[in-house]
Each structure stands twice: as C-alpha cells, then as structure tokens.
Amino acid sequence: MSTAKPYTTDPSELGFDPNVLRQKYNYERDKRVKKEGFGQYRDAAGELKEFMVDHYAEPFEREPLTDEVEFAIIGGGYGGLLAGARLR
Assign residue 75 a region: left if phi > 0, alpha if psi is -120 to 50, beta otherwise? Predict the structure, then answer.
C-alpha cells in the first residue's frame, strides 16, 4: 500500500484519526483480496459465452484504421476531456 500523504488539515480538526481509518480500510480490503488473483475469475466460454455478445449493437466489419496521430485519447471520461481541452 502507498505511504500516507501529508495532511493539509490538522488531523485533530477532523474529528477522527485518519491513520486508524486507513488501517480499517486496509484490513477490510485485505479480507476481500483473494490469493488466486485473476485465477478466481471464470472465462466467458461454454454456457457463459452469450455474455460476450452485445445484442443491442449492430455487427459490422471494416478494415483496420491506419491513421497516424500525434495524440490518441482513449475514453471520454473527465481525464480524457480535460486532456483534449488542454491539447486543443
């Protein structure tokens, strides 16, 4: 786990101890992390393969894109939008 970051507020003003809270969250996380890692998941094959199909999307085939770009922003979340705005 990462080391504690410096506080911008005096912890005594918060009404709780951030280190105790961090320990609690780490304890709860550790209870749920499995030692099998990705081995705990099943492949979507056999009877589960229907979950790999998007029944609402129109199927299509096309040639791969060969565009050359200076920047490629993947995703339209807040970070992607912010990066696009700054690059503009």
Answer: left
